[in-house]
Design a protein that fits this description.
single chain; 128 residues; mainly alpha; Replication modulator SeqA, C-terminal DNA-binding domain; 5% strand
């Protein structure tokens, strides 16, 4: 279980202008991963075990992610030694982020509130 002050800090962040200014889901995804790393530097390594059927979601280098599949667009999680696969659709980013929050000990309630913040204030593109 995560300390209450970390729950409060995470929830405050996802409601703040510092988070909401990120204009894409990918930017918000990476910003959340950066914050989670800062709050849990020793436990964050657990993300390296998170994989999809044909994808590696996290690595210590871009190459670790790219070796499994092409067009993964790995990006460094700022302020950490980790890289994240970013070529995921919105639903997949929510699933992966939910797995990270669970692995770090966040409650279902906090997870739901954080995941809902990913697209707050964003408009959906209409396909014709």
């Amino acid at each position: 279980m995560v300390e209450k002050n970390l729950d409060a800090a995470l929830l405050a962040y996802v409601g703040s202008p510092h988070f909401l200014v990120h204009g894409t889901v990918t930017a918000r995804y990476l910003a959340l991963l950066r914050l989670l790393y800062r709050h849990h530097p020793k436990d964050f390594e657990a993300v390296l075990e998170m994989r999809g059927r044909h994808r590696v979601y996290f690595g210590r280098s871009a190459e670790e992610i790219e070796v499994v599949s092409a067009h993964t667009f790995p990006r460094r999680i700022d302020g950490s030694p980790f890289w994240a696969l970013t070529n995921l659709n919105h639903r997949q980013k929510r699933v992966v982020l939910g797995r990270v929050l669970f692995a770090l000990g966040y409650s279902d309630e906090v997870e739901a509130r954080v995941l809902s913040a990913l697209d707050v204030g964003m408009t959906q593109k209409v396909r014709s």
